[in-house]
What does this fold into?
Amino acid sequence: MNKTTIQSYSKIRICLIALSIALLSSVSCKKQDEKSGAEMEKAEAADVSASRWTIGMSQCNLGEPWRVQMNLDVKNEAEKHPELKVVFKDAQNDSLKQRSQIEEFINAGVDLIIVSPKEAAPLTAPVAAAYESGIPVIVLDRRVLGEKYTCFIGADNKKIGKAAGEWIVERLGGKGRVVELKGLMTSTPGQDRHTGFRDGIKGSEIEIIFEADMKWLEPEARKEMESALARFENIDLVYAHNDPGAHGAYLAAKAAGREEDIIFVGIDALPHEGQIYVKQGVLGASFEYPTGGREAIRTALEIFGGKTIEQEIVLSSRVFTKENIDQGGEWLR
Amino acid sequence: MNKQSRLTEKSVTKNALLRSPLLRAFAALVLVFLIGMVFNADGAFFKWNTHRDMLRHISVFAILACGMTLVIITAGIDLSVGSLLGLTAVLFSLFSIQKAWSPWMSLLACLVVGAAFGAVSGGLVGRFKIQPFIATLAMMVFARGMAKWVSGGQKISTAVLQPDGTYHYVEVPPIFNFLNSKILNENIAVVTLIFLGCILICWIILAKLRWGRYIYAIGGNEEAARLSGIPIIRTKLLTYGLSGLYCAVAGICQAAQELQGDPEAGMTYELTAIAIVVIGGTNLMGGRGGIGLTFIGAMTIGYLEKILSINAVGEASRLMLTGAIIVGAVLFQKTRR
It folds into this structure.
């Protein structure tokens, strides 16, 4: 009898838990929407008085520093043009929330939408709806399906991975033992930075002696690098799919007193992260993965100016090394 | 007849041996250790450095698990530990790197914040009778939000943003380097010693103090505990507060090891902490368990991760193996009860 009461008690508990999670999230959604609704009204009021153009920007997830930087780039560029007013929304990694944000922008009648989608499929329809209603849409970084948008701006991870591979071949003189610390391999950036890199080192005598998935996370990278260090006496270079990964690997090597023997290479080159690591001499090189925020505002101005623009803009990126960082890096071919 | 009684006698001693949870937890650890001896990755498993690095890596999780053990013995759960770790890591970096407070002030402030947030959870659970799962879930969300708010969504590092948009670099405070270093001839990480200290404190509380007896009593039967005059609210407040304090300790260690405060730090760490407690053999229903078990649980999870890592096992197989081994270990502890 006691057991059944416990069981039914735990069932009730599970129901309660599920219910309260649902409640919690719906309450927070509602609050968010109300708030952004109010912000929108304010934005529109401001629009009448000062700015000529209102731009709605929907960011899929502000949990990542790179995306925080993207918003910052948009904001900084827009502030140079007093005729622009940008309304920012954060979809908190939720496709459906992002969908309703785009619908809100359509209803509010903004002049242009910038969207960095979480996923292609769920956002294709709302983006197309906005485009068909006559609002220009700039899609940033991740794609939507079909062709019903004004302009896609993004960088090519494969190209960056390949450039990193070629740089590494040159730096090591065509021969060496390399550790590859991969980003989440179920994500496209992780896959592209991997295949591009392998493409770049093809034909050389570079040997990948150890590879592990560090899921973009610094502590994971440190742990994996410790394993690599325990296993191999000679490591020439570490290629990590992002700068925090390369930094984690550096910390592991430093703890083992081997940081002088190894070159660390990362990707992203955010101003407050990778570029600083390069300046401090922690990383041998960092490859920029541009956010496209600045270009989005420039493209928006061209659209407002009535110019016709390309439907696809591939951003070029830079490599930062100790030699060139003070000159602002070097553009990749 | 004679044969039968001898059989029973034999199985009784066998049962008594197997009934000891400490011994069973230890058996699981030995099993994992043996797996490591077989799959030793060209002898990497036999180097002391591998073990030292495993101890360093698991320390932060294990510190969280210490506080979690006490909470779980009261038949509660603390889901907020990962977020509180993130919050205190950000605060510690902010105070000591960017605001250049003295290390003692920064340490004290972070410990107070951790304990206070934990105590709030304890108050919600004890005084307002909110389910521990819900109260600490809310705290988990709130503390993560606060970590992002305090840091502005950016990592707090040695690069300090100037008003004109450029970055100014400051030195890492010595306390970071101290916590991130190894002592005794480079043979053990400082964070591991902190973890051992946390274990010791928990052991004193559970084995020597009245507070420890209250914790077991509440977990065993809260109504009976209340009727026998045990101060339930105060005990819960203290226990969750201690868990929050340990989160701050872990957060400080995390920041020191990353040389920065990451507002995303500690995501899903609560699950690892719970796994450590449960794999050690502490009962999620409360009333039973101990800190020694958690120590063994931490070693088991730590070695498991290390063995998969030095053998460069792929992510997919790693997750499946970890899941299977956790179930195996828990089943092993359950069957012969």
User: Anything to note?
Assistant: Chain B touches chain A at residues 41-42, 44, 47, 49-50, 53, 57, 131, 133-134, 137-138, 141, 148, 153-155, 157-159, 161, 167, 169, 180, 182, 254, 257-259, 262, 264-265, 285, 305-306, 309-310, 312, 314-315 (CB under 8 Å). Chain B has a mean pLDDT of 87. Residues 276 and 297 of chain B are 5 Å apart (CA to CA).
